Amino acid sequence: MSEKILVIAETKEGEIRNVSFEAIAAAKKIKPDGEVIGLVCADDDLENLAQELIYYGADRAITVKNDNLKSYTSEAFGQAVLAVVEHESPDGIIMGHTSIGKDLSPKLASKLESGLISDAIDIEIDGDQPVFIRPIYSGKAFEKKVITSGIPFITIRPNNIAALDRDDSRSGNINNVDVDIKDLRTIVKEVVRKTSEGVDLSEAKVIVAGGRGVKSADGFKPLYELAEVLGAAVGASRGACDADYCDYSLQIGQTGKVVTPDLYIAVGISGAIQHLAGMSNSKVIVAINKDPEANIFNIADYGIVGDLFEVIPMLIEEFKKVAV
Ligand code: FAD
């Protein structure tokens, strides 16, 4: 890949998402001597957001400010990014493999006639050629892919490529590109949140996930308490979601979210193949289950055989002692 790489940043609740900083690190890995350009599209407060991209390693940043960029739509964001691509002619484009990344990247790649590699978890350099590693068959195998034509377009899975350390002595230009976003067929009038937002599941470093063993919505309370002590996000198996113990937005697995935290604590989850598809690449897996034969123990690094309603309060007490 080339000299100039455009990183499409994403924001959440007025802040840059961590995966966008990871995308900057990925761009640096692909071309250490190249120029990394961070792009942030929003309706407000762009200067601060662009500055953060530079602190995390972008050589310069571009902002597109427009009222139509308040909430994500593929049409409005697509027009903004395409205008910047036309302006900058980058040699590569990277963004997070998030819901927005999954929606936007194929549309843009097809318009730009780019080769697209999605959900990359690592990058190797073979001579001058970046090779992207991505999981296939629900994480049971990995493939190594290269792009042979068009502007290489990559999406990276959150939590796999470490972001550079934030360094507020880094500096770089920030330029605004005016884009006339028009002829939108849909606009977002309002976003009504369904659940109160805690730590974002897909980017969480620690996840406490509950399964059918939790037995009720009330049974999730100790898991939330443990999550709070650990600064973790709460997730769930489909068993727990189907039983109405929690919202489907927490579901992890083949038909839920794919997560790669540093620590995954599976509580009362049997370890069905469809659940493992969403979490088996977690760096450290701890399973708590009263059945010593439960399949989850086959992939766990640490296992606790016991009743979760006895084990979780003990963990909360112990973690509270070491929490700062
Ligand atoms: P169970 O299998 O019922 O396991 C509950 C566990 O809790 C048991 O191991 C039990 O020993 C333990 N337990 C019970 N009481 C206690 C206690 N007091 N203390 C400690 N342990 C206790 N599943 C997903 O999770 N994600 C998906 O995305 C997903 N997609 C699917 C897609 C398809 C097409 C299909 C067919 C299935 C999918 N499933 C998915 C469902 C999956 O097959 C399992 O049914 C589901 O994961 C089981 O959830 P569970 O482990 O919570 O429940």
From TrEMBL:
Keywords: Electron transport, FAD, Flavoprotein, Transport. Residues 5-191 form the Electron transfer flavoprotein alpha/beta-subunit N-terminal domain. Signal peptide: none annotated. InterPro entries: DHS-like_NAD/FAD-binding_dom (IPR029035), ETF_a/b_N (IPR014730), ETF_a/FixB (IPR001308), ETF_alpha_N (IPR033947), ETF_asu_C (IPR014731), ETF_asu_C_CS (IPR018206), Rossmann-like_a/b/a_fold (IPR014729). The keyword Electron transport applies. The keyword Electron transport applies. It holds the Pfam family ETF. It comes from the Bacteria. SUPFAM superfamilies: Adenine nucleotide alpha hydrolases-like, DHS-like NAD/FAD-binding domain. Belongs to the ETF alpha-subunit/FixB family. This is Electron transfer flavoprotein subunit alpha. The lineage of its organism: Bacteria, Bacillati, Bacillota, Bacilli, Bacillales.
